[in-house]
């Protein structure tokens, strides 16, 4: 099912509806949908490298807006909307474990790691942020930095180095995720002692 859905989305990304499809996926990925925007973002940047920075901006805007929507779901509609979503994705135990360990520093760390490497998934962090009442404006600022920087750097690298970067992403995704976690950990430590 996922392969068919991914194939269909990539086909849509190559059509006249490409940018709208990319933005829609980036929006829902940050609040309710498990498919990362990179599934469309990378092939679109490779197909039209001259538009990579435009795609990066559109993806970041849609992802941040989706994150704000996830925060609103968590804050105002948890029992009605978020809980059934978490149950559907079998993410309630992970959500409860994260909820028990959260504070300002940990939410900022989670926003960085989920924004950069999907660890944990962005939708879990956005909903969690709303549930615990994390400051909405600080949440937006962190999402802008995490998602904006990620897509800007990725778009630039894809435009400049093309398929070479795509191959590295495919082969070294675990290493990149680990790097994002280390950077996030350093940020958390800095926030704790500043």
- Based on CA atoms alone, the radius of gyration comes out at 16 Å
Helical content stands at: over 70%
Shape: globular
Beta-strand percentage range = under 5%
Number of alpha- plus pi-helical segments: 10
Task: Please provide a brief summary of the model.
With 194 residues, this protein is mainly alpha-helical. It has helices spanning 2-13, 18-29, 38-47, 52-76, 78-88, 92-100, 104-117, 122-131, 136-161, 163-193.
Fold blueprint:
Layout: H1 2-13, H2 18-29, H3 38-47, H4 52-76, H5 78-88, H6 92-100, H7 104-117, H8 122-131, H9 136-161, H10 163-193
Helix pairs in contact: 1-2, 1-3, 2-3, 2-4, 3-4, 3-9, 4-8, 4-9, 7-8, 7-9, 7-10
Task: Tell me about this structure.
The protein has 194 residues and is an all-alpha fold. The mean pLDDT is 78. Helices cover 82% and strands 0% of the residues.
What are its keywords?
194 residues; mainly alpha; 10 helices
């Amino acid at each position: 099912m996922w392969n068919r859905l991914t194939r269909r989305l990539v086909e849509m990304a190559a059509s006249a509806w490409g940018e709208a499809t990319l933005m829609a996926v980036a929006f829902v990925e940050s609040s309710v949908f498990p498919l990362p925007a990179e599934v469309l973002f990378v092939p679109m940047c490779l197909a039209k490298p001259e538009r990579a920075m435009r795609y990066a901006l559109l993806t970041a805007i849609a992802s941040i807006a989706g994150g704000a929507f996830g925060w609103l779901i968590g804050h105002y509609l948890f029992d009605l909307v978020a809980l059934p979503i978490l149950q559907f994705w079998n993410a309630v135990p992970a959500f409860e474990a994260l909820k028990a360990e959260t504070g300002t520093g940990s939410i900022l760390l989670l926003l960085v790691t989920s924004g950069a490497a999907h660890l944990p998934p962005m939708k879990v962090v956005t909903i969690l942020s709303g549930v615990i009442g994390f400051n909405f404006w600080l949440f937006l600022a962190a999402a802008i930095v995490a998602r904006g920087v990620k897509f800007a750097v990725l778009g630039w690298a894809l435009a400049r180095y093309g398929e070479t970067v795509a191959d590295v992403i495919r082969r070294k995704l675990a290493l990149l995720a680990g790097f994002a976690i280390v950077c996030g950990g350093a940020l958390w430590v800095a926030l704790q002692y500043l």
